[in-house]
């Protein structure tokens, strides 16, 4: 059995690339000439908290917990939010969505979070 060994490259020979021939008087195309400009649409104005439009799930949950005055689980919070018309959803598991949003806020904001976890599946307002 024979094995091929890689031969070291001879560094005494230098390799140079030949210049590329171009048409006389031809200019290279710029990026702006090849692609059309993208139209930038203005952003819609942000909603104020007092507007009559739909509020976020976290804002609605805070309002329900404040009015109720006691810790609630996500199923109870969602039921109260939907019954009062504070929040609407077409999702199959709105209580799981709210639960995830509450935990995410508690984890990311820490002591500054609007909610606190009381027990297994129970949440209350932090302040």
Topology, element by element:
Blueprint: H1 31-34, H2 57-68, E1 72-73, H3 74-84, H4 94-109, E2 115-119, E3 122-125
Antiparallel strand pairs: 1-3, 2-3
Helix pairs in contact: 2-3, 3-4
Tell me what you see in this structure:
The protein is an alpha+beta fold and 127 residues long. It has a domain at 57-125. The protein contains four helices and three strands; from the N terminus they run ααβααββ. It has helices at residues 31-34, 57-68, 74-84, 94-109; strands at residues 72-73, 115-119, 122-125. The chain has a three-stranded antiparallel sheet. Helix 2 (57-68) crosses helix 3 and helix 3 (74-84) packs across helix 4 (94-109). It is elongated, with a radius of gyration of 32 Å. The N and C termini lie far apart (80 Å). The model has no long low-confidence stretch (mean pLDDT 80).
Rough shape?
elongated
Q: Could you tell me the radius of gyration in angstroms? A: 32 Å
> H/E series, N to C?
HHEHHEE
For the biggest sheet, the summary is: 3 strands, antiparallel
Strand order, largest beta sheet: 1-3-2
| Mean of all residue-level pLDDT scores | 80
Figure out the total of helices.
4
Q: How many E strands? A: 3
Beta percentage is: 5-15%
